[in-house]
Every structure is written in structure tokens, then in C-alpha cells.
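pinned: reference chain
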Amino acid sequence: MKTLYCAAVGCMAAACVGMSGSASATDMNYDQAMELAVSGIVESWNGYSFVSDYTPANGNPANVLSHDDYFVSGTSGRLSLPLGDALSIQQDVEIEITGNAYEDATGNNYIYSYQMGTHLSFRDPGMGLIGAFGGWGSGSADGNRAVNDRSDHLDFRYVGGEAQVYLDDFTFYVQAGYLDAERTNTNNFDDTFRDATFVRGVGRWFMSEISRLELEFSYADGDADTEPDDHTVLEWGVRYDTVLAGLPIIGDTPVFIGYRGARFENEDAPGNGGGGGGGEGGFDSEDYLDHTIMVGTSWSFGGDNMKQFDRVGATLDLPNFGRWVASGENLD
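pinned: its C-alpha cells
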């Protein structure tokens, strides 16, 4: 974990050095003419998720296996406003809804999460960006709720730092921060993933003015369960954006296809309901993999093409913290 954070800090330092250094003459001619723009983007997608490789610690089925495949959809919006030549503020809103998953005692097979975030950053469109972010959110994902109990939600908040480095047709993006959460219904055990630190890396390749390939990886380490137990999250993804030109009626249409995978693991200590004595050092481990394939579309303003939007507009984003927080409940 220390190695990961040293890498994150190193990437942020590299961004600072890059912003104070010099870019190539070609990059400077192209990018120095750009100024931070009032910009925004709205995205909407639908997809299909399935769970695999579930390993229980004590032989009992987890909530996650109530339905191990389901449809999922999400909508997000981001707005960036310049506060001068280099300073800007960005506001994020994201909602994800999952049907037919994690069945609860009422038979209501429905979970959701939403989050809001704010970014404050300094940016040079020809070199990079450095800033901070924070926000909050809520969701529901517990299969053990009492009948008709609608007060049981997972509330979370997060804070961190971020940096970007611009190298011709590539953007390298790193984030690191802290995530905490709690259940609003104190009558139930607090299995929520909480008191966690995380790091995230993103790479974007602008293949042309209308196409982009993005890869990302995240790691988070924190607590879950009442005792608590050590809980980790590994998440990875790939996404390809392009524009379908000249469609009937609607004209040019931005579209994207993506894949998101994650591994959630809870190391249950002896005496905490995990069966005891199993695994190395008397610990039991339970985990599962979650896979999502998605197709979506977007609408944006504040940039002539994908690369320019990335350098002057609402380019910052966040992982879906609601999924991370809910994973503690799914492995209780």
C-alpha cells in the first residue's frame, strides 16, 4: 500500500514539474492558444452485470448471490467553470441504478447509488493540472433489511488530491484520497466498507479528433463489518469513445462502449462470524468478482473535439464510490 501511495505522490510531483517545465514547440503552438472554457458533459448508459468466482468464508450464501446477473444503468453530468486564467471549479453528479439484484426481505430487487463531487484545480492546457476534490453520496444495497424499513441507506463522503499530465495525444491522470461511510439505520450491524484510503490511475489516448481509448485502475483498502475486518477493492476498466457520423434524424452522435470489472475481498478474522481458523494466520477470506459491460451516449459543450475538451473542459471524473461502499454489505 505504501508503494502505491508513493507512486501516486510521484505522479502528482511529475505533474507539477511538467507544468513548470517546457512542452515541445508543436504542443505549445497548439495548446497555448487554448483557454479554460465553460464546459459540460452529460452521459447516459445501459449495461449488463454479472457476478463470478464468489468465495464464502463460512459456507453461507452472501446477499450478492440472490441474483448473480442483472441489468444496470447510469447517468452522470459534469460542469466546469473557469475562475480566472488557470483556476477552475467543476461539479459532478452521478446516479447508478441496478435492477434485479441483491434481493431483500421485502422482495424489492432494486439498488441504487448517487454521488456529488466538487473539483478545484489549477490547469495549463499545454502541460497539465493539479487540484483537490471532495464530495458525498448515498445508496442502498443490503439484502438483510427489515421488512418495510426504508430508512436503511449507506451514506459516504470522500476527499483527495488529483493531477493530470498532457503529452501530445495522451493524458495521464492520478487520484488518491480517503473514503468513509456509515449506515443510517443503527439497528443493523455496520457492514459498510469505510475508513478507506484509495488510489486511482487513468490513461487516455486520443486516437483522432473523434475517437478516444481510456484505461483505468483503482485500489482501495479499508474496513468492513462491526469488529472490523480488513476489506479491499480492486477495480479496472476500459472504454472506447467515438462519433457515429450522419445518423438519420439525429445526425452526428457520440457513443461509447466500455467494460468495468472489480474484485471485492473481505478478510474475516476469527470470532467475527467468519468460521475461524481458516486461511493463513487463522483468517478466512471471502470475495467475488463483478463485471459490467455498458453502451452509452453523451452530449457536451466547451470544446471543438475530444482532445480539446479534455484539456480545457470538464475532464475530471470519479470512481463510483457507492459500489465500493456497498461491497461490504454484500460480503457480510
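why pinned: The two ends are 24 Å apart (CA to CA). The longest helix spans residues 2-20.
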